[in-house]
Amino acid sequence: MERLVLETKQELGKAAGAEAARQIREAIAARGEANVILATGASQFEMLAALTAAPGVDWSKVTAFHLDEYVGLPVTHPASFRKYLKERFMDQVRGLRKFHFVDGEAADPVAECRRLGRVIARHPIDVAFVGIGENGHLAFNDPPADFDTEEAYIIVDLDEACRRQQLGEGWFKTLDDVPRRAISMSIRQIMKSGSIIATVPDTRKAQAVRGALEGEISNRCPSSILRRHARCAIFLDRDSAALLSH
Questions:
Q1: Residue range(s) defining the domain that contains residue 225
Q2: What is the pTM of this model?
Q3: Residue 79, SS3?
């Protein structure tokens, strides 16, 4: 895993976004198209702004997937990840080939997981953009995460630490408002990506970053699995890197 530590989260976002755009252009040059995975949350604000503003990306050749979505949350809710990605990504780029959203409002979430699995199986991922949760989660795979399932998307129960993070970031008014279940891309599906760019700013992520980069590789800290990926870069700022030993 390559570590890059920037001074501020603004610099982090610009650097990660520039690298993301470079890799998308590289995939298009090599194969005529690019398939990507997009994350959400406060950690991705600056990266997505830089990516969508980057020059020279032919978005008509890009197909995007999204990592996770709350079960039962309306797309109109301020915390909806579909709403987030429409406003912060789709509305900012021109002519995107396709975005495959996770429909958290699907009448049958299990069938929705299967549908998404069939689609992503036809689209080998060139680069995945991810974050790391305060509890070390990767996507919504909270500890102890399932490292073994071959399913591309799964239904997960969100632990209290994860739900408190969503509350702390201001997406919900009370803890009881935070959904208890979500559809999440699985660990193994994320790890199938040709490249992974992890964007992880802020002091509140420092403990999770130390666990992911210097602790045991374990489903108790799901993001630690990223160290086993052949091509993963993690972008940190001084705050999120503060607890690392070197």
A1: 2-237
A2: 0.96
A3: coil
